[in-house]
Amino acid sequence: xxxxxxxxxxxxxxxxxxxxxxxxxxxxxxxxxxxxxxxxxxxxxxxxxxxxxxxxxxxxxxxxxxxxxxxxxxxxxxxxxxxxxxxxxxxxxxxxxxxxxxxxxxxxxxxxxxxxxxxxxxxxxxxxxxxxxxxxxxxxxxxxxxxxxxxxxxxxxxxxxxxxxxxxxxxxxxxxxxxxxxxxxxxxxxxxxxxxxxx
Length: 199
What we know:
- The protein is of the alpha/beta class.
- It contains six helices and seven strands.
- It has helices at 13-21, 43-58, 87-97, 138-145, 174-178, 182-191, and strands at 5-8, 27-28, 65-76, 79-81, 100-113, 119-133, 167-172.
């Protein structure tokens, strides 16, 4: 392998699947960095802050590596929305998104460590995607909120799963909505010297 070991600071099955599509070897390791949605930052700054925090948190454990951090959340009616705290919270969030255009924003960070696990390089960015959500019935909202994955996903919403049927229009990167903007990530990895042999 002509580049350092690549670590995805997440165990998200969706992010893992998108990483596999890039065709490069990688490992997944969960980062316990707290996802504090209450920080007084703009949406882009918050997304980048959380993504970078996830990567930096586990970096000392992985010398000679490139660590990828990502954080995705939803902005609806000016509110930054992460993972719901309960089914009732999920119902509130989904109701807020009903019949409106929401922003899905992902922060992405890649950091490279030396032989001692010290960060020597880092790149960050963010990607926006807009979704038009159709008007949802009380039955739709209840069904989405009670879905088995609802409490594990920002906005209780999974476009590749149950929530996809309620999207009227998408503007931007589809993979960003899933949780990993792979086009921007690939550009970052190339800048850090990762070669993609499938090209």
